[in-house]
User: What shape does this take?
Amino acid sequence: MGRLSFSLYLERRILFPTQSFGNQRYRFLRFSILIIIIMIPLILSLMFAEGMIDGITQKYILLQDGHIQIFNSEMILEPGEDASIIDDRIYSIDYVVSGYGIMFQKDSNQEVYIKGVNTSYFNEKRRSEFSLTEELPLESSNRSVARVYISQTQKDLLDVSLGDNVALVTIPGDNVQRLMPKLATVAGIYESGYNKIDESLIFMDIQNALALFDTSAVRSELIVDSSGADDAGKIIDAVNEYTHTVNRWATYDQFNRSIYDNFITSRQVILLVFIIILLVAGVYIANIAHEIVEDSKQSIAMLKVLGATNRQMIFSYFATIMTVTVISMTIGIASGLLLSLRLTSILTLLKQSTFSGLTYYLLDFELSIPVTDILIIAVTLLSVASIFTIITLRRIISISPLEVLQQD
Assistant: This one.
């Protein structure tokens, strides 16, 4: 019998032991079930965390920051004008002004982030990120009373309704030198699904907002497609060529660095926790290998007598254990991905619940498969299991046929 044939024979014997090795069958079954049970919640947790972080990032980009901000008080394009004339990757360019203020109504007040925009700001992409109940158009020729869109959260806090008036006062800062009061009518109520945005962001017609803030608060926000998000420099070059000026600019992650740094840190912490869990799983796999070797000491001794080498047996046991690991891991990943199809329904039910702790999470987002992170998890488990299993299987070298046969 050749070496390869012998190794395959030994692997089949380990994987499908005889009736006298019932414990070994049970250990393989227990081992396989454990790997599947570990992988399913890991995949579900990964998809939830990645989906929520990506969803929050998308809401900040589309509702508050844009992909790229150009700091120029001059309007690049007229409201609603096709931005693809500058670069095909640009979806929209919106002229905006923003700053901080306080919104008052009777006995309540709320610090808000005021964003002055044109009606064209609410394009199809932005409207996909929030719902809007609109009673009046945002734009108005009345310069004494502004129009604002507030969130459902702010509406409940201030106890106001559509058509009610609220008072706004700007907060002195980099883009406003003094307190500026303004009366505003609630023209619409939006809901983004993310509490951090809904607590502070309000939209105001841009003409009234320009009267509240200095020109330093004016900028143009660019929304770009997925290919342009990673190529901001070339897009800015196209804008500079179009405007015949060199514009100052920043990307969304630079504009709110603390927020996006937190997202990066969160991803790293989540992966670190997963890797620690996989380390524990790797140790367990090595422990199973040790138990299987102990159960098979007599068979190993007999095989050595028949001429099997330590390398052949270590390889056969290793290949068998890793085969079970790969199969179990694949089943666990596939099961997790299938169960994630129901995750959206579960999140919808959670969103409708009255549990206050859930208000700090985004529960309305699209799920995507984080292929890179899943590969990292799979490679980590296989690497850790391989190292610990090989170390454990070296126990085979110390098994002496003579000692084993004497004990029997």
Summary: The CA atoms of residues 147 and 260 lie 31 Å apart. The longest strand covers residues 90-105. Residues 73-246 form one domain. The beta strands are 68-71, 90-105, 108-117, 131-134, 145-151, 165-170, 181-191, 201-205, 218-224, 248-251.
